[in-house]
Write a structure and sequence with these properties.
The structure is a single chain. This protein has three helices and seven strands, in the order H-E-E-E-E-E-H-E-E-H. The protein is α+β, with helices and mostly antiparallel strands. The chain has one domain: Small protein B (Small Protein B, Chain: A), CATH 2.40.280.10. A three-stranded antiparallel β-sheet has the order 2-3-5, covered by helices on one side. It has a two-stranded antiparallel sheet with strand order 1-4. A two-stranded antiparallel ribbon has the order 6-7. Strand 6 and strand 7 form a beta hairpin. It is flat.
C-alpha cells in the first residue's frame, strides 16, 4: 500500500477504517477507494486528506488473476483487514460476490423481526 508519512503514523495510532471501502483495477493497477485514515493529530500543514484513493502494491500475476475473475463472474474486490507486519502496513483483500435479490429480502426480514423483538422486550420491561 502506498502511503504518505502522516498516514503511517495515524494507522499506527489505530485511526484507520476500511468498513465501507472497495478496490478497483484501473490501467493495470489496483486502487483502494473510500477508506478513511484520520489526520495525524501532531501533523502540520502537510497532513494528508482523510479520504483519498490509495494504490495497492501487488504482483502482476495477482492483478491479472483478479482481473480475470472480475470479468468472468461479476465479482468485486473487498478489503477485509488492515494490519502491520514487519513494519509494513498491509491490507488483506478478497474476491467477493454480491448478494442476490432473494438474499437481500431474507436479510431485510431478519432485521424486521429483530427490531420487533427488541421493541417487545423494551415494552415488556415498562
Amino acid at each position: 500500500m502506498v502511503l504518505q508519512g502522516t498516514e503511517v503514523k495515524a494507522i499506527r495510532e489505530g485511526d484507520a477504517q476500511i468498513s465501507e471501502s472497495f478496490c478497483r483495477v484501473e490501467k493495470g493497477q489496483v486502487w483502494l477507494y473510500n477508506s478513511h485514515i484520520g489526520e495525524y493529530k501532531y501533523g502540520n500543514f502537510q497532513n494528508h486528506p482523510p479520504r483519498r484513493k490509495r494504490k495497492l502494491l501487488l504482483h502482476r500475476r495477482e492483478i491479472h488473476k483478479f482481473i480475470g475473475a472480475m470479468e468472468a463472474g461479476g465479482k468485486s474486490l473487498i478489503p477485509l483487514r488492515i494490519y502491520i507486519k514487519h513494519g509494513l502496513i498491509k491490507i488483506e483483500i478478497a474476491l467477493c460476490t454480491g448478494k442476490k435479490l432473494h438474499d437481500k429480502r431474507e436479510t431485510l426480514k431478519k432485521k424486521i423481526t429483530m427490531r420487533e423483538a427488541e421493541r417487545e422486550m423494551r415494552d415488556h420491561k415498562r
